[in-house]
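ENTRY TYPE: paired fold submission
RECORD: A
CONTENT: sequence, then structure tokens
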Amino acid sequence: MKRITLLSAGCLLALATACAPEAETLKTGDLVFVGIPADYTLDPDSMDSAIADATGDAAGLNLIHTAILDLTDGEPWIIDATIRRGVDRHPLDTFLRDFTLRDGSLPVFEIKRLRDDARAEEFVANARQYLGLPYDSTFLPDNDAFYCTELVYCSYLDPDGNPLFRSEPMNFKNAEGEFPLYWKQLFDRLGQDIPQGVPGTNPQGMAAETILRSVDVPLHVEK
């Protein structure tokens, strides 16, 4: 009887091991969301602070940027749109350096994946077509320039060419209903009105889309 019990336990252990899900790894087409904890003090004159004020979660994580993961021969590269680089493709370690915080720490990186990612390679190929184009400081559509989530929005398309992600009226105001100084100064320099209410996208809204799921994979560079 004792022998049967031990054998059964061993079989159960083997069965549990065989059925255990494999650990997930990064995949081409994953989206990397850059998050700043709500209690971290950003430079009040920065775009990151202005984005957090307008679209962030005051009680949780303020998502300020979205990037596309592009794996080549197993090596992680990033495609994204930033003020510093425009639409660019660069190694993961460059991306991590670019987003290192003032105190030397890294922000929180949330990895999201399409629930149906069968066409991920195609979406990344779409994004590569825009490499070299400038950053869209005007936050206006259809002007051959891109901000971070606009690049994703225009690259992740269904077979009919329609965006998979939603567009909604953009908000540039803070919780008090005022425009942060950064936005006032930026659009004064550009000579245009702040595009409040113009259709667009933002990291916080995109991360909440139901077509995405969270992937528990650390984002780091192997030593």
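RECORD: B
CONTENT: sequence, then structure tokens
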Amino acid sequence: MNNKMKNAMTVDVEDYFQVSAFEPYIDKAQWDELEHRVEKNTLHILDIFAEYNIKATFFTLGWVAERYPELVKRIVREGHELASHGYEHLRVTTQTPEQFRADIRKAKKILEDISGIEVIGYRAPSYSIGRDNLWALDILEEEGYRYSSSIYPVKHDLYGMPEAPRFVYQPIKGSDFKEIPITTLHIANKNYPCGGGGFFRLYPYLVSRWAFNKINQQEQQSGIFYFHPWEIDPEQPKQKNLSFKARFRHYLNLNRMENRIKALLNDFQWDTMQAIFLTENK
């Protein structure tokens, strides 16, 4: 598909047991005792991106970077953007401003010490910045971040700020700091998610292709797509005693995800968040 508009490809680098939906079932104290699959899965994603010759932004947990520094170095060595996903996947809604500052500062230092480059981007775990904790954006700027991709302008049971702008904006008066929301479609006075994750696995691929074409061609905007390394891993250990909703959301169509990602890479043009949204003409 000849589409000259570039979109941002992003990966939230976390392991299967770190997702917010598993918090009631897996204690953080167990994390190091569980089978780790994030390194293998992320390396596979890097191989796929190399095959399709695209660059992406990897929002990486400090916890993962500490344990797999060579993975971080490969991300940077191959020309991708390294960004922060916080230290240990703590939702911002569960933190005080002081705790949040400590978390994002710790993650930034770990990522920068390992990679040797400046980290300027941040994405909150589970898109947990919204109308009740916009103070987090001020703290991000104070700690040296230049953009966030943490507000999802949809109505959702776990996150969302549907009244937020749908495309990149500057939320702090007098500042160049940018919030870059995940892509949505606006239909009949409502925003619908189309930027990745479980929605991408739920809908037929043609729906996502149609949505990104509409964003690029009709709205003349660059979109953002996101996914997680565990989403291309149908062989991951299955958790027991999950609620039906958690089980459905996590395991739905994992076996189809890799082929859908490849179709997306083939059908559209991709680059990093920094290249698309922080260049001089943006």
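NOTES ON RECORD B: DSSP finds ten helices and ten strands in the chain. The chain has one domain: 6-277.
STATUS: closed
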